[in-house]
Amino acid sequence: MTIRRRHVDIFLDEIAAGNVEDDIDPVFQSQLCQHLLRRASPTRAVIGVADSLKGQSPLGLLCLNKGVDRDPAEVVRECVALVRDRIGPVADFKRAVVVDRLPKTRSGKILRATMVKIADGQDWKMPATIDDPAILDEITQALRGLGLAGAKG
Length: 153
Description:
- The chain has five helices and three strands; from the N terminus they run ααββαβαα.
- By secondary structure, the protein is α+β, with helices and mostly antiparallel strands.
- The longest helix has 27 residues.
């Protein structure tokens, strides 16, 4: 493997895993995004899900503000377009889903590792520190709508 190829692989791995969320955050915080999304989605998470070609690809989970009456599909399309415009197509951000809420621990941390296992169809265990276990069923249903989430916890 050449050095250049190795650097490209490392770069793509970083993009596909968790760093997309760090790159997406400024997009969500930008005035352009707030105008386009009309402050529709203040809470979000990006996880890396299994991809047969790239190893992992990013998947966005978006929670809409209460009272937002916009079509979730429209919000997803705008989000994907903004990320591709600001970061570029190399980020491979093509999929996102609107959910009612994200699974969190009692201290407020988002349970990304559990969501990755659900999305990839791996066996997972209910985290002892989860705030509301019913949220994982909601996430599973949302991910099944994208053709993900094969295994049960």
